[in-house]
Amino acid sequence: MIREIIGFGLIYIGVVFDFFGVLGLIRLPDVYNRLQAATKSVTFGTGGILLGIFVLQGFNNFGFKAILGIIFIFLASPTAAHAISHASHRSNIKLDEKTVVDQYAEDNENK
Amino acid sequence: MSLKNRSRITVFFLSLLVWFALTDITNLQEVILGIIIAIFVALIAGHFLITTEKRKHIFKRIGYALLYIIKFLWEIIKANVHVAYLVVHPKVPINPGIVKIKTKLTKESAMTILANSITLTPGTLTVDINLEKQELYIHCIDVHSKKIEDNTKDIGNRFEKILMEVFE
């Protein structure tokens, strides 16, 4: 009973944060800011859902697969965000008008 | 035994352990298939795991690694509440920019973990790493200062001390 309350609670928290991530993807201005929302909230949200599944299932095949899924998401999501942001900066995708400073572009011009 | 072979054997046993966690250990077919796959994994990618001879203070390092995981989880929760607040706020109060920070870490693995942690924590995303100069370029959703020293203190130092203990 308690296990079900904790498990479903974690799943609901995960879904809520996934929702915030998607909302950020729509509302924030440029590629880089959208990546921020996409990496943080979606990693945490999906991690929460998988942790909830682990709590519900316990130490069997399903549970271990969920744990492995969490580890892979936590490794892959920042790496993908890094690759996308690096690539979009190299292909000269402009930052938003609100941007105050871009030291990366300054340094690359000096080279 | 050479360093590479020791690393390969460690990878073999670790991947076999993961395989047994995922499958039925009483089934002989699964066990044989697992051993074959673990040998392949160890031969192809085994030499990346252990790169230094040093084996001192292993328990101290594991302790610091656990401390790091706890701190990392706490920072992730803070990051998510922060992003959720920014997104729900009607005006979207952001102040974005790309800043540069310096790090004292030297190893590639430590730098990778630092960059990934920075990406997953409040308002920051790693755009590029300069390994020779030990610099990281960070996209901040809310820039406070344009000075390298200030930003290094704000962003990098949270994890750097613990990672120094774990990796170096």
What does this structure look like?
- The complex is a heterodimer of chains A (111) and B (168).
- With 111 residues, chain A is mostly helical.
- Chain A has one domain (2-93).
- In chain A, helix 1 packs antiparallel against helix 2 and helix 2 runs antiparallel to helix 3 (61-90).
- Chain A is built from 4 helices and no strands.
- The N and C termini of chain A lie far apart (63 Å).
- Chain B has 168 residues and is mainly α.
- Chain B has a 3-stranded antiparallel β-sheet with strand order 1-3-2.
- In chain B, helix 1 (3-22) packs antiparallel against helix 2 (28-45) and helix 4 (108-120) crosses helix 5.
- Chain B is globular, with a radius of gyration of 20 Å.
- The model of chain B has no long low-confidence stretch (mean pLDDT 78).
- The A-B interface holds A 17, 20-21, 23-24, 27-30, 32-33, 35-37, 39-41, 43-44, 61, 64-65, 68, 74-75, 77-79, 81-82, 85-86, 89, 95-96, 98-105, 107 and B 18, 21-23, 76-77, 79-80, 83-84, 86-88, 92, 94-100, 115-117, 119-120, 123-128, 137, 139, 141, 143, 146.
Topology (SSEs and partners):
The complex is a heterodimer of chains A (111) and B (168).
Chain A: H1 2-27, H2 31-57, H3 61-90, H4 103-110
Chain B: H1 3-22, H2 28-45, H3 58-88, E1 97-102, H4 108-120, E2 124-130, E3 135-140, H5 148-167
Antiparallel strand pairs in B: 1-3, 2-3
Helix pairs in contact in B: 1-2, 3-5, 4-5
Structure, briefly:
The complex is a heterodimer of chains A (111) and B (168). Chain A is an all-alpha fold and 111 residues long.
What is the helical fraction of chain A, as a range of percent?
over 70%
Low-confidence stretches of chain B: none
| Number of beta strands of chain B | 3
Instruction: Specify the overall morphology of chain B.
Output: globular
Main sheet record of chain A: none
Radius of gyration of chain A: 18 Å
Strand order of the largest sheet of chain B: 1-3-2
Q: Average pLDDT across residues of chain B? A: 78
Outline of chain A, from the CA principal axes?
elongated
Which spans of chain A have pLDDT < 50 for at least 5 consecutive residues? none
Question: Percent of residues of chain B in helical segments?
Answer: 55-70%
Strand content of chain A: under 5%
Query: How many H/I helices of chain B?
Result: 5
